[in-house]
Putative glycosyltransferase EpsJ
Amino acid sequence: MSYKVSVIVPIFNGEKLIVSCLDSIWNQTIESIEILCINDGSSDQTMNVLEKYKSQHPDTDKKRIKIIDKENGGPSSARNAGIDIAEGIYIGFVDADDYIEPEMYKCLIDIADENELDVVLCNILNCYSDGRECASQEKVPTDQLLNRENILRMICPTLMGEDVFGGPCNRIYRRTFIEKFHIRMPNDIGYGEDAVFQMQVFDNLERTWFDSHCYYRYIHREGSQSSAKPARFKNTLEPLYVIRREYGRKWSISKQDISTYFVYCTIMDIVNTLKSEIDSDKREYMRYLLHNKNFFEALQLSDIKKDTYTLKIWLLFKLLKYTVKRK
């Protein structure tokens, strides 16, 4: 059977949060839905929770829950496993600690069907532990068709930094589009693999639609920010910079902008690494960084303004730039 949408949920140690997430997907107003729960090598009771949930929500002709239990490989590996077995006309992603509004997939699929679109997005509501809620602010026209020119001018540049367009969850993708261009998440990047996925998507997309409604609720939890992890330069920041540089060349995006964001992220990584107790070999990390060709080239191209980031970031930027000149 071909479902209207396959929703892929990568899960790692999500026993405490996954039920609320699955409830929000199961209770979608769209009738035909496949929920693919990818247990990515969890060491807690996630698998038991999933099996119990499935037993309480038996499959019907129009609804199905499928559980895939695999060795831990990270979110890219889990999402790719879901893509490989998805049977839906469309594919969606929901993170295990988030949830979605009941009408999300019905509304996005209606827009996609009516306009013959391969990708449709909605806005995100950011939900914080202190009770604050705020919609993501995107400088893109909403509730109207966006053509290739709009995509190249307004969306592609945002993929060079940290932005809602880099995430995979607040949107649907036509499965035949994903398969036609062989789009998958890279498994060899520690963080930011979803941004690379989006670069592949928007590089091949002719038209899209951005719905202004906040159907996706992104839950910000303390200690869950990947940006706080130390020593990300070698396995994340540098490969992402190389990939962004290649796409930036294709899309005629300023090298300075790409370099500035890369240098900013690297400075944050330096700060997080040096103050971390987890990474013991900090001297080797700094030696690798300060002899890295990509970082030196980007440092010379970049220009972090004093009023753009914190004073600490600006001062470290100036110090590093001075070090490069001395060498």
